[in-house]
Amino acid sequence: MGRRVAVPFPPRRIVSLVPSQTELLFDLGLGEKVVGVTRFCIHPAEARTKTTVIGGTKNFDFEKIAALKPDLIIGNKEENYQGGVEQLAAEYPVWLSDISNLPEALDMIRRVGFIAGAKEKADALAAEIDGSFAALVTAANEAAPVSVAYFIWRKPYMVAASGTFIDDMLHRAGFTNAFADQARYPEISAEQLAAAAPQRIFLSSEPYPFGEKHLAEFQTICPDAKIEIVDGELFSWYGSRLRKSAAYFSQLR
User: Fold this and answer.
1) What whole-number distance in Å separates Cα of residue 27 and Cα of residue 13?
2) I need a surface site. Which of 155, 178, 202, 231 has the fewest CB within 10 A?
């Protein structure tokens, strides 16, 4: 993000404000350095039991963070909130990622590994993920594109549109975004969905917990579409979980 951040090397007390980056730290073998995470940091299971939970991604408990005396805090521009990040940055080194596509995710993985003292593991992980997506894109290019509406919320309906990490994942998997003419995460109406007439509708498992009970609701709006629940983590977590994404997308195709 163009910010200068002075970090002790290697850092010994890390607070992670983002679930996917928490998982990355543990997968890089840095779990013992992680002292604080958010309540949404559900992977790995021990992330919340072996560390202090410091609130959510958009509501930090500043007193708990102060008690942890972190020498590095890792966050993300989109998932965290500016006011909270600025308050923390006045006291601690706060490194932020800004991710909207796969190259930026791979860059984040390499940078976090370098900053936190696991450069070789991070470089190897990034190379593994990059290779899996290269094979996926090759296969996707050989198939006819399929239009998809990707829903992240209900009441109101909200979709992932252009400029999002999810949109980049859809394209790499060989799908076209039915709402590519809109930006970020717009609210849409049932009428707009019917007019877009996507061939497939993906109902993400997060952040809204879509389930089987919601399939009929969307089938009524788009009778000809194939509607399914998809693993939102594999579409939107931009850390080490990406190792599983390409294979999952291939199965979806």
Assistant:
1) 17
2) 155
